[in-house]
Design a protein that fits this description.
The mean pLDDT is 81. α1 packs across α3 (41-57). With 252 residues, the chain is mostly helical. It is built from 12 helices and no strands. The chain has helices spanning 3-22, 27-36, 41-57, 64-67, 75-94, 97-116, 118-129, 135-151, 156-166, 172-196, 202-222, 229-251.
């Protein structure tokens, strides 16, 4: 990695960290950037987890008031999501790199769809499981979603936000703080798996961490004051273009 690549990754890291804290979806920017500097797709995916960790973790202090007092209510969520994330990360570790490359366009399209239809999905989940009788279904949804999160993870925030609301945390900012906490906790577990498996490119990860740490904190400070509607529209449009590009590269 040369100086220019390092500077690009710091800049993309800052942008991605701030974007992740405000609107989510930074993986759609940071993952292609890591591949663009020469990392293999599976390594870029694993490195991206470490690179974006600060964007969620650095936003948590801005939500300390919302998280204070929740205590034991969060333990089941942390356990279920952590178990799912470990399974998903092990699946990535065991994946044939060529199989993962073939999945990239579909994964990006799924992530984009989660952003595009996130509000409708959240409303459907609330209607379906929000009557107090669906705790098993809620935990199952969290578990399956976390497997996806450990394997790729882009767009998962919208599901985590819905699950937090389904668990009774109806205040949006409290639910958003729980989303960031869950994302931080299972990202750490995924990083441990990827680190043991030797998938993380540490120099590139460190360069992006520098940017995402600052960007994540700045985004966390701004998240409560910014209308994210237009930002989400940009993510969706970019995701659609990106998925088309990868479909063309992979199957054309």
């Amino acid at each position: 990695m040369d100086t220019t690549q390092a500077m690009v990754l710091v800049g993309i890291g800052f942008f991605g960290g701030a974007w992740n804290a405000i609107a989510g979806g930074a993986t759609l920017f940071t993952f292609p950037a890591l591949m663009a500097v020469g990392l293999p797709s599976v390594v870029a995916n694993a490195t991206n987890y470490l690179a974006l960790l600060p964007s969620n973790a650095a936003a948590l202090p801005a939500y300390r008031e919302e998280l204070r007092g929740l205590g034991k209510q969060l333990l089941p969520l942390l356990f279920v999501s952590g178990l799912g994330a470990i399974i998903g990360s092990v699946l990535l570790l065991a994946s044939d790199p060529e199989f993962f490359v073939a999945l990239i366009p579909f994964l990006i399209l799924v992530a984009t769809g989660l952003f595009a239809f996130g509000d409708a999905l959240r409303a459907w989940l609330l209607r379906t499981m929000g009557d107090g009788r669906g705790s098993t279904a809620i935990n199952a949804t969290l578990f399956v979603s976390s497997i996806y999160g450990g394997y790729f993870g882009a767009g998962l925030g919208i599901i985590l936000l819905a699950i937090a609301q389904l668990m009774g945390f109806t205040n949006f900012h409290i639910a958003n703080s729980i989303k960031n906490l869950l994302a931080t906790s299972f990202t750490i577990l995924s990083i441990v798996v990827f680190g043991i498996g030797g998938l993380i490119a540490w120099p590139q990860a460190v360069a992006m961490i520098v940017g995402s740490t600052v960007g994540g904190y700045a985004g966390g400070r701004l998240a409560k004051r910014i209308n994210t509607r237009y930002l989400r529209g940009v993510v969706i449009a970019f995701g659609l273009v990106l998925s088309l590009i990868y479909f063309a590269r992979t199957f054309a």
